[in-house]
Specification:
This protein is an all-beta fold. Helices cover 0% and strands 31% of the residues. Strands 2-10-9-4-6 form a 5-stranded mixed sheet, with no helix packed on it.
């Protein structure tokens, strides 16, 4: 207002968001996980325009997730990221379900969607699952009567080495009746 001038209000101005330009994490995935088991907290992503406005009417943009090593955020992880890895936005939100990873290593989830600016998720520490098999190495062809060293490694269903918690017993057998076999060995914590 200015002195005797009257005030006139303008008509309502509706400002809408621009097109999606970046991806932001609305819900980070769980920080720890077990190989092959769905993440306890599944990731949710929001879409934002170049000005940081939430793109709440975007229901067409698709986002794809992949797993990269946490150490550099670039190198593809050595396991398999399972689940529906590509999802479409619904009112600006991209929700993922049923995601899990198979290798015991530290990863981040990397979203991609065309030219949108992206940021990797926080680190997920993936640990091995329950023991599923034994891997024997060191057996080689040798002359009769020659001793041979072998190593037995406990593996989970995804080939990850189980480093603690297995307490099974290894029992050796051979089809060679003259073979001298080692005694049974029971794994203990710390093996």
């Amino acid at each position: 207002t200015s002195g005797s001038l009257s005030v006139v209000n303008s008509a309502q101005v509706i400002v809408s968001h621009a097109s999606a330009a970046s991806i932001g994490w609305t819900t980070q995935p769980a920080s720890t996980a077990t190989a092959g088991v769905d993440f306890t907290t599944q990731p949710v992503i929001g879409l934002y325009d170049a000005y940081g406005n939430f793109c709440g009417t975007d229901s067409t943009t698709q986002v794809t997730l992949s797993a990269v090593l946490a150490s550099d955020g670039i190198t593809t992880g050595g396991g398999i990221l399972n689940g529906t890895l590509t999802q479409a936005a619904s009112s600006g939100i991209v929700t993922f379900t049923g995601l899990n990873y198979t290798k015991a290593e530290n990863i981040k989830l990397k979203p991609t969607s065309g030219s949108l600016s992206v940021v990797n998720s926080a680190q997920i520490i993936v640990s091995y699952t329950a023991a599923a098999s034994l891997s024997v190495t060191g057996i080689a062809s040798s002359a009769a009567g020659t001793a041979s060293d072998v190593a037995v490694t406990v593996k989970d269903a995804y080939g990850n080495t189980v480093t603690t918690g297995y307490a099974g017993t290894v029992h050796w057998i051979s089809t060679d009746a003259q073979a001298i076999l080692p005694g049974d060995y029971t794994f203990v914590s710390g093996d």
